[in-house]
């Protein structure tokens, strides 16, 4: 690509270039003295010469546009970061809700099991009480029958082993 330039190009031969303002200052300082027709210009538009400097600043609405552009860029970055944070928080909330639901279900299951265990315990306690009552009545009848028949055994000659068995049985049931 070629650029057609008209005019005096000799004047541009005396303009040095620099990447930054610091580099331009170094070039000016390194040259013992710039001739009045020599200067250094930076990529961003600062232009230095012997005893003078010209800085090109954005004017009027350009300053506001650049500031707004920078602010819009920063706000867009903040929006992206906040959206990512919102997504992570939403996922965490979903996870916590699921864990809460599972914990409530486990609690309900445990309460149901506890209720069933208490009910079964009550049923067994009632059956035990009933069984003990029946057994006591049965033993009372047997003991009464034994006590009544004891006089007959003595008279008929009951064996001592039978008497000891009845005595042991009587004491083991009462205890």
Write a concise keyword list for the protein shown above:
four-stranded mixed beta sheet, 3 helices, 4 strands, alpha+beta, 175 residues, disordered N terminus
Regarding quaternary structure, what we see is: single chain
Strand order of the largest sheet: 1-2-3-4
- Secondary-structure-based class equals alpha+beta
What is the gyration radius calculated from CA atoms?
55 Å
Describe this structure in words.
This protein has helices spanning 21-30, 61-156, 160-174, and strands at 15-18, 39-42, 47-49, 52-54. 2% of the residues are buried. The protein is rod-shaped and about 150 Å long. It is 69% helix and 8% strand. The protein is built from three helices and four strands. Among the domains are: 14-56; 59-127. The model is unreliable at 1-5 (pLDDT under 50). With 175 residues, the protein is α+β, with helices and mostly antiparallel strands. Strands 1-2-3-4 form a four-stranded mixed beta sheet, with helices on one face.
């Amino acid at each position: 690509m070629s650029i057609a330039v008209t005019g005096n190009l000799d004047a541009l031969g005396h303009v040095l270039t620099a990447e930054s303002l610091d580099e331009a200052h170094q070039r000016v300082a390194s040259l013992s003295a710039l001739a009045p027709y020599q200067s250094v210009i930076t990529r961003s538009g600062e232009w230095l010469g012997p005893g003078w400097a010209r800085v090109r600043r954005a004017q009027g609405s350009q300053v506001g546009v650049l500031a707004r552009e920078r602010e819009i860029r920063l706000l867009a970055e903040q929006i992206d970061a906040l959206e990512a944070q919102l997504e992570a928080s939403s996922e965490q909330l979903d996870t916590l809700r699921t864990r809460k639901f599972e914990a409530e279900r486990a609690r309900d299951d445990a309460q149901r099991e506890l209720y069933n265990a208490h009910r079964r315990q009550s049923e067994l306690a009632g059956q035990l009480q009933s069984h003990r009552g029946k057994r006591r009545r049965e033993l009372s009848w047997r003991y009464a029958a034994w006590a009544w028949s004891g006089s007959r055994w003595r008279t008929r000659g009951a064996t001592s082993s039978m008497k000891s068995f009845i005595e042991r049985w009587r004491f083991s049931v009462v205890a």
